Each structure stands twice: as C-alpha cells, then as structure tokens.
Amino acid sequence: MTRLVVVGAGLMGEAIFSGLLASGWAPADIVVSDARAERRAELSERYGVGSGEAVDAVADAQTVLLAVKPADVGGVLEEIGDRLAPDALLLSVCAGVALATLQAGVREGTPVVRAMPNTPARVGEAITAVSPGTHATDDHLAEVTEILGAVGRVITVAEKYQDSVTAVSGSGPAYVFLVAEAMIEGGVHVGLPRDVATELAVQTLFGSATLLRDTGDHPAILRENVTSPGGTTAAALRRLEDHGVRAAFLAAVEAARDRSLELG
Ligand SMILES: NC(=O)C1=CN([C@@H]2O[C@H](COP(=O)(O)OP(=O)(O)OC[C@H]3O[C@@H](n4cnc5c(N)ncnc54)[C@H](O)[C@@H]3O)[C@@H](O)[C@H]2O)C=CC1
Ligand SMILES: O=C(O)[C@@H]1CCC=N1
C-alpha cells in the first residue's frame, strides 16, 4: 500500500509531502495526483515520489490527503469517494469543507479527519488544528499527527471551531505579511534603503514571534516593555489606535470566519 496519496498537489499539498520527505519518509511512501499532468510530472521529477491519476492511486492508499480548492471538493469526491480502500483514512485540509460533507462523499464507515494547516508548513513552522470525524480513532489521529507534525505543531479542536481557526491561523500568515509589507514601506518612507528596511522588519517579526512563543508572556506585557513613557513607541501606538488597527483585525478575522462558513 502507498502510505500517502496527495490529491491536489498545489502549494499546501507540496508543503506537506515535502515536509514528510524531510522528516525521513521514503519517496516510495508517497504518490501525488493533480488535475495538471505537468504539475504531477514536475513533482515526481523533483522529489522522486510516485504520480498517477487520483482514481487509481487512492485505491491503494493508507491515507488520502485532500488538498484541492474547496470548490473542487464535490467533483473530486464524486470521482474517488467510493474508490478508497475500506480501511483508508481521508484527511482534508480544505477550508470550510465540513466533516459531514466529506463523510457523505465516501463509503459509510470511512474514517475522516478535517484539518486546517497554514503556509509556514513550507519551513516546518505550521500550526494545524485537526478535528476527527465519526469513524476516526486515536490511531487515525496519531497518523494525522505524524503527517502534519512533520511540518509544524498540531492541536486537536472540536469541529465547531474550524471556521474560526481558519480565520486566525489558516489565513493569519497573510495578515502578518501585510504588516511586514507595511513596516518595510514605513522604513522606506522615513528614509531607509529598502534592503535595510526589509532586514529590520523581517527580523523584528521573527524575534517578536519567538519572544512571544518562548516566554509565554501576554502580548500586552511584551508591548508595555517596549513602550517608554512619552517615548517613540507610545507615539506610534497612538497612531495605530487612531487608525483603528485593533478593530480592523477583529473585523478581518470575523470576515474570514464568515467566508469559511460560506465556502462549506
Ligand atoms: N494556501 C493556504 O494558505 C491554505 C490552503 N488551505 C486549503 O488547501 C487547499 C489547497 O489550497 P492551495 O494548495 O493553496 O491551492 P492550489 O491551487 O495551490 O492547489 C490546488 C491543487 O489542486 C489541483 N486540482 C484541482 N482540481 C483537481 C482535481 N479534480 N483532482 C486533482 N487535483 C486537482 C490544482 O491543479 C492545484 O494544483 C484549499 O482547499 C485551501 O482551502 C488550507 C490552509 C492554508
Ligand atoms: O484563503 C483561503 O481560502 C485559504 C484558506 C486558509 C488560507 N487560505
């Protein structure tokens, strides 16, 4: 049997299976399938993994990773849903797509897990929230934790939280990159060469995230540590509050949560 068949080998599919290879899985453990034949060929050539049509590959899979766009899930499940081996596990990372929808698309009794990773998977620093379906056992969750643990941290949440998870951590990297762009532009605006502004902004984001994670201190405490009375940071934070940045983040996360609900 193939340990993992990836159906939809785009950005997320590649990030996850390449992380598994880096963690020691053999290329022979993995088969990639994608609607674009040239993409399959490119990945097979670059990583040495197998490639094939989803409809054939899934019949021999221990786990099927579903990583197509949410709009393509219905068609893919129609194609492969009743082709999975009887004890195969279906692992979906598709935003908004409910366990009920996934379970309705496969044979009764098939174990299904819904997961939401994020793009830092490409560098082994993802956070993924997983929710087991009706027939997923602890062994299935252990398998999923091994797969997604190869690209970062894994937590388990009730499915009712998945749309909110998507809004915070699934989409979250885009918010951080927007902040990065804005900080770099700010630096250029006050006269720094672009490469200097970029290095300052990127390392500041990395260092701040590491400080937050490693100390476990509340972000408000860490922010206060930077903010001298009457100083530069207080002047800047006042402007951010004037421009409603905190409220904008609340509204943005809410909009992403609502969109995830719609996609499902
Ligand atoms: N990009 C992100 O930040 C994240 C994406 N996701 C979810 O992961 C899934 C994939 O997203 P991306 O990798 O960003 O998209 P992508 O567009 O890079 O990859 C999707 C792949 O599916 C292939 N595909 C389309 N129809 C197919 C079919 N019928 N059979 C086989 N392959 C087919 C496409 O050719 C493409 O390579 C989405 O459902 C998304 O919601 C989840 C977490 C984060
Ligand atoms: O924007 C999206 O729909 C996907 C889901 C999470 C990140 N990207």
UniProtKB/TrEMBL annotation:
<dbReference type="GO" id="GO:0004735">
    <property type="term" value="F:pyrroline-5-carboxylate reductase activity"/>
</dbReference>
<dbReference type="Pfam" id="PF03807">
    <property type="entry name" value="F420_oxidored"/>
</dbReference>
<dbReference type="InterPro" id="IPR036291">
    <property type="entry name" value="NAD(P)-bd_dom_sf"/>
</dbReference>
<protein>
    <recommendedName>
        <fullName>Pyrroline-5-carboxylate reductase</fullName>
        <ecNumber>1.5.1.2</ecNumber>
    </recommendedName>
</protein>
<keyword id="KW-0641">Proline biosynthesis</keyword>
<feature type="domain" description="Pyrroline-5-carboxylate reductase dimerisation">
    <location>
        <begin position="159"/>
        <end position="263"/>
    </location>
</feature>
<comment type="similarity">
    <text>Belongs to the pyrroline-5-carboxylate reductase family.</text>
</comment>
<comment type="function">
    <text>Catalyzes the reduction of 1-pyrroline-5-carboxylate (PCA) to L-proline.</text>
</comment>
<keyword id="KW-0028">Amino-acid biosynthesis</keyword>
<dbReference type="InterPro" id="IPR008927">
    <property type="entry name" value="6-PGluconate_DH-like_C_sf"/>
</dbReference>
<dbReference type="InterPro" id="IPR028939">
    <property type="entry name" value="P5C_Rdtase_cat_N"/>
</dbReference>
<keyword id="KW-0560">Oxidoreductase</keyword>
<keyword id="KW-0963">Cytoplasm</keyword>
<dbReference type="InterPro" id="IPR053790">
    <property type="entry name" value="P5CR-like_CS"/>
</dbReference>
<feature type="domain" description="Pyrroline-5-carboxylate reductase catalytic N-terminal">
    <location>
        <begin position="4"/>
        <end position="96"/>
    </location>
</feature>
<comment type="pathway">
    <text>Amino-acid biosynthesis; L-proline biosynthesis; L-proline from L-glutamate 5-semialdehyde: step 1/1.</text>
</comment>
<dbReference type="InterPro" id="IPR029036">
    <property type="entry name" value="P5CR_dimer"/>
</dbReference>
<keyword id="KW-0521">NADP</keyword>
<dbReference type="Pfam" id="PF14748">
    <property type="entry name" value="P5CR_dimer"/>
</dbReference>
<dbReference type="InterPro" id="IPR000304">
    <property type="entry name" value="Pyrroline-COOH_reductase"/>
</dbReference>
